[in-house]
Sequence to fold (183 residues):
Amino acid sequence: MKGTLRTSARLGAVALIALMAGCVKEEVRGDTSVFAFNWWMAGLAFAGGLLAVPIGLVIRHKAQWPGWVLAFILGPCLIFGIAPAMVLDRATVDQDHFEVRYGFWFAPHRVNVKFEDLRRMRLSTQAKGLGRRRRIQRSMDLTFKSGQTQRVSVGDLLQRAAPRIVERAEAKGVIVMGSLNAR
Fold:
């Protein structure tokens, strides 16, 4: 039973990752580009949360710990955290600025940067860890004309919006260095 449960969990994780690939859409309104997750991604997260609760309650008799995690942690997190965040997260780029809103609906992270305030933008990609634990971390280091700096973590939305941001920043005279390509 434990091997089957573990294999099913791995297959589910791989399927979820495969479904999430290419899940960001771009909508162009005049000179403004808006990047957001496709609507079905939030629906999938919500449905997964709804399914996790009863499945967890059923399997907790055979596999107690995974059952409780599914029913009382994963399910509610998907329903009340991930699904609403996917509906609300977005990146907007126009001729004058870019803004990004991401994170949980109750505590979003917001970035709003005017290109005219920027001096330099450095895009970087770093591999962290080794082997199976290796992950790619992308960031945007912004240097403002005032001398302040800001590091912006680059997730799926911002990575998809990056070419538009770079194009419009360079048009405003911002020095752009580096790239977000994986090494």
Observations:
- The CA atoms of residues 35 and 149 lie 25 Å apart.
- DSSP finds four helices and nine strands in the chain.
- The beta strands are 24-29, 32-37, 90-93, 97-102, 109-114, 118-128, 135-144, 149-153, 175-178.
- The longest helix spans residues 64-88.
